[in-house]
From TrEMBL:
Claim: Hydrolase is one of the keywords in the record: yes
Cofactor names: Zn(2+)
Keywords annotated in UniProt: Hydrolase, Metal-binding, Metalloprotease, Protease, Signal, Zinc
Annotated protein name in UniProt: Insulinase family protein
Family per record: Belongs to the peptidase M16 family.
Signal peptide bounds: 1-21
Cross-referenced InterPro entries: Metalloenz_LuxS/M16, Pept_M16_N, Pept_M16_Zn_BS, Peptidase_M16, Peptidase_M16_C
Peptidase M16 C-terminal domain segment(s): 209-393, 689-869
Length: 939
């Protein structure tokens, strides 16, 4: 540890000692005064909080302390089924789309803003980002929650209509991970009920249960004493509380309610072992879970719990750093690894975890290596230097969070509320936590953190889980795994050597260059500066995010300038160089040098351009500028790190050919590029073409000549602070006055209609249908808006006709795109999973809706829903710094001012159904079509 860091930490410890004394660790945590909470006579709990982020928006949640764990055997899957039914008719909103139709008229979008989820112990419904300027809408949202609480209709025909949707969701989830979890969970969860309830449930039950069976679950468990209402947003909290009390008090009190049982995962002595394999898995992994009881509600409510959370966080951070270092040196012992406190597995059970993705046939080696690092901590602990760096970074992060606390989203507050209601986690006021953490963190000792290893790494209640390919790999046995653990425990280990780092990022004087021209951009309240070396910088102060400065840049060229022989290296430059380090320092040392700094930088090399950019706090902006300078002038190319990355990549692809998803992705890529030689698939051939020499050559060619770059700086920092730092650091980067452009390599999709039916080695019957339309045509702002509206209309229609009426799929994904470079075009694609026997019929409905929209314009109601949502989302994004970064970049790169009403408001307000129909014809008539269906191999 450096002398400077020691001095800082010693001062912090002295300053905090008196502050720490005021906190009794056994004292209860104070309640957050900003949250109004109470319990009604019928047992329902409510939480109300005012929050102005986002402004003029509110979120409404009903949190049910019930889930799949409460199902009887004949109800397996019905907790989740019931969640779907909540959207298919309630007392005040009858019909399959009664709720969503009403909300979408106000820009509250199904899926994005209106949704729900079911877990083993909980079911949660939300209506988010609701405009608060319409008080009647707020009342309506409360009424929806009221209906979800007690007034679902559960009509026979609606139940039958949903069977197909959930059957297809079941099909979509049936992948290798799902199948292996079915093998491992009974062992990890010791054959408890948690191991028998996977939420999606039993397909036979989903298809055939009697209506009353679902109603029985609903009437037994959906009741106010097991429910909480949470409303957070930009409204009068007192008024909202009165509305909640008045409306929800009318829900009847349950009579003789069933006991809401809790379910245990019984502990076990010794070590359990399970190995799960699957033909579709590409990599082997080995994981060790050491289970222990989660803290009680009473324990969570003490100051001591906050401190324990900090201590565990430090432990996880330091151990993760050690594992990261292992992966950057020599011959890495595994592809990826992680360890530490993993939180809750299920309610009431936490776990300490360590595990690794292994190289083929090297599961024992991976287990030995990851366990060795845990055992090293157990024997020798962490070093003081490691802890002080972790403390410094956390304190800096807390300081940044404190500056941003008024920008905490309503959803973040609701997450705290949800955990309070379901698990008894305290709702802690940020100001209290901030002052507590500042006082406590400096007093935490390295011995205190290190002691956790001895406390939790024990061979009791331990489960070893091995997962991997079913063929072509030898998996570690239980005896071998146990022997490996013992080998580590009996081995001689050396303490971790923490090498200190204290130096300047830049070790020379920089001449810099002055700003020689300034241009005002009044429409953005921004300025453009030109430096003597030719670099352009566009600056705008934006202070919505108070502790943020973002830097982006752009230069033409990209990978388009390289032939096929260098293309693989060009495509991985950005991924590799970040691991090499920077300037005189490897990545490990650089991270230590940046302790206490919140600044990061990266480079990107895309198909047509390259960029250098990053972000920082206002206080660390100079560090960000230094890092950008080094990216240009002193890049680092580390052969050892490069070889380590390559070894891990080669290991990762060993069984990749068995993965149907990879086969599908490769097939799509090849077909959509019309088998262009520039489309090199990721695999051994791709990796064989990569060399560090080519990476260095391409990097030094692309991240060069600052006169060809335009930088964009947006954040909460003054121009007078930015100018001298830009002049010093960006002004010191060399210029070569190149005038570059990208090259059109003529990679195009196939012409006409291409139909492909491709068989995949799937374990479960599932078809994937992908239909893609593209057309070379001139782009315009008007047509871009029409395309977005068309996408929204198709989303609505496919949801109604393919998901709901047909019960044919869990959902159709519609993607829309446009391009101006290297050629102007529009595209739209549709993708869904389904029963292979229904694929052709359902695909015909994709085409049918397009044909219908070309013949008959969409309804005004259809486009109004989409337009309202687009306007709402745009208004919500406007205050944010990212909006201004996007606006300025769009202006420079495309010549369009998105802040000008003529480029959005004046267009969208005049768009008619006929306009959308006209664009539909323009796009789809004569479009090139790629029609792909992936089906299971014939057996």
């Amino acid at each position: 540890m450096t002398k400077r860091l020691l001095t800082v930490c010693a001062l912090l410890a002295l300053l905090s000692s008196s502050l720490f004394a005021q906190y009794d660790m056994k004292a209860p945590l104070p309640k957050d005064p900003n949250v109004r909470t109470g319990k009604l006579a019928n047992g329902l709990t409510y939480y109300i909080r005012h929050n102005a982020e986002p402004k003029d928006r509110a979120s409404f949640y009903i949190i049910q302390n019930v889930g799949a764990i409460l199902e009887n055997d004949d109800q397996n899957g019905l907790a989740h089924f019931l969640e779907h039914m909540a959207f298919n008719g309630t007392k005040h909103f009858p019909g399959r789309k009664g709720i969503t139709n009403m909300l979408e008229k106000h820009g509250v979008e199904f899926g994005r803003n209106v949704n729900a989820y079911t877990a083993q112990d909980e079911t949660v419904y939300n209506i988010s980002d609701v405009p608060t300027t319409n008080e009647g809408l707020l009342d309506t949202c409360l009424l929806v929650l009221h209906d979800w609480s007690h007034y679902l209709l559960l009509v026979d025909e609606e139940i039958d209509g949903e069977r197909g949707v959930i059957s297809e969701e079941w099909r979509t989830r049936r992948d290798a991970g799902f199948r292996m979890r079915a093998v491992t969970m009974p062992v990890l969860l010791n054959d408890s009920k948690y191991a028998k309830r996977d939420v999606i449930g039993d397909l036979d039950i989903i298809k055939n249960f009697k209506y009353q069976t679902l109603r029985d679950y609903y009437h037994k468990w959906y009741r106010p004493d097991l429910q909480a209402i949470a409303v957070v947003g930009d409204f009068d909290a007192e008024k909202m509380e009165q509305k909640v009390k008045e409306l929800f008090s009318k829900i009847p009190t349950p009579v003789n309610p069933a006991v809401r049982e809790t379910f245990e995962v019984l502990p076990h002595d010794g070590i359990k072992f399970v190995c799960a394999t699957d033909k579709e898995v590409t990599n082997s992994s080995i994981a060790v879970y050491i289970k222990y009881p989660a803290p009680t509600k009473e324990e969570k409510g003490l100051n001591e719990a906050l401190k324990k959370g900090l201590v565990q966080s430090f432990y996880n951070t330091m151990l993760a750093q050690r594992i990261s270092e292992l992966l950057q040196k020599g011959n890495p012992p595994f592809i990826n690894g992680s360890a530490g406190f993993a939180g809750g597995i299920v309610r009431g059970v936490n776990a300490y975890y360590f595990g690794a993705t292994a190289k083929p046939n090297e599961e024992a080696e991976a287990l030995e290596a990851i366990y060795r690092e845990n055992e090293r901590v157990k024997r020798f602990g962490f070093t003081r230097g490691e802890l002080e760096r972790a403390k410094t970074n956390m304190l800096v992060g807390l300081e940044s969070a404190n500056k941003q606390k008024d920008k905490t989203t309503s959803e973040a507050y609701i997450d705290e509320i949800k955990e309070n209601f379901l698990e008894g986690d305290p709702i802690v006021d940020f100001d209290y936590y901030y002052e507590f953490a500042k006082a406590v963190i400096p007093t935490i000792t390295v011995d205190e953190v290190s002691a956790l290893a001895k406390q939790y790494i024990v061979p009791t209640n331990m489960v070893i889980i091995v997962q991997g390919p079913a063929e072509g790999v030898k998996h570690i046995t239980e005896a071998e795994a146990l022997a490996t653990l013992k080998k580590v425990e009996d081995s001689q280990l050396e303490p971790y050597q923490d090498e200190s780092a204290e130096a300047k990022l830049i070790n020379k004087e920089l001449k810099g260059s002055k700003i020689i021209a300034t241009k005002k951009l009044p429409q953005f309240e921004a300025e453009e500066w030109t430096l003597e070396n030719g670099a352009k910088i566009v600056f705008r102060k934006a202070d919505f995010e108070k502790d943020q400065v973002a830097v982006a840049s752009y230069s033409k060229g990209g990978t388009s300038l390289y032939g096929v022989d260098k293309l693989a290296s060009a495509q991985v430059v950005a991924d590799f160089v970040g691991a090499y380090g920077l300037g005189d320092y490897d990545a490990i040392t650089l991270k230590k040098l940046l302790t206490g700094k919140q600044a990061n930088v990266g480079i990107g090399i895309g198909g047509l351009s390259e960029s250098v950019g990053g972000g920082s706090t206002p206080g660390d902006f100079e560090t960000l500028m230094q890092l950008i300078y080094l990216k240009f002038e002193e890049p680092r190319f580390d052969k050892e790190v490069h070889n380590a990355i390559m070894q891990r990549n080669y290991a990762a692809i060993a069984n990749m050919d068995n993965n149907p998803k990879k086969i599908m992705q490769d097939s799509i890529s090849r077909i959509m590029s019309n088998y262009s030689p520039r489309n090199i698939l990721f695999g051994k051939e791709f990796l064989d073409k990569i060399s560090i020499e080519q990476i260095e050559e391409i990097y030094r060619d692309r991240i060069k000549d600052i006169s060809d770059f335009t930088f964009f700086i947006v954040g909460n920092i003054d121009a007078e602070t930015v100018k001298p730092l830009v002049e010093k650091y960006l002004g010191s980067v060399q210029s070569f006055n190149r005038k570059e452009n990208w090259v059109d390599n003529k990679v195009r999709g196939p012409k006409g209609k291409t139909v492909k039916v491709i068989e995949l080695p799937l374990q479960d019957p599932k078809a994937t249908v992908i239909t893609s339309f593209s057309k070379n045509m001139k782009t315009s702002i008007h047509d871009n808006i029409c395309q977005n509206i068309l996408k929204g209309v198709l989303d609505q229609r496919y949801l109604t006709n393919i998901r709901e009426k047909e019960g044919g799929t869990y959902g159709v994904s519609v993607q829309a795109g446009s391009s101006r470079e290297p050629y102007e075009s529009y595209s739209m694609s549709m993708m869904f999973d389904c029963d292979p026997d229904k694929a052709d019929h359902l695909k015909s409905l994709i085409y049918a809706e397009i044909d219908l929209l070309m013949k008959e314009a969409p309804t005004q109601e259809e486009i109004s829903k989409v337009i309202t949502t687009m306007k709402k989302n745009r208004e919500q994004s406007k205050p944010h710094n990212n909006y201004w970064m996007s606006a300025i970049q769009t202006y420079y790169l495309r010549g369009i001012d998105i802040t000008d009403p003529k480029n959005f408001d004046n267009i969208i307000d005049k768009i008619t159904p006929k306009d959308v129909q006209k664009f539909t014809k323009k796009l789809f008539k004569g479009a090139d079509v790629v029609d792909m269906t992936f089906i299971p191999e014939a057996k």
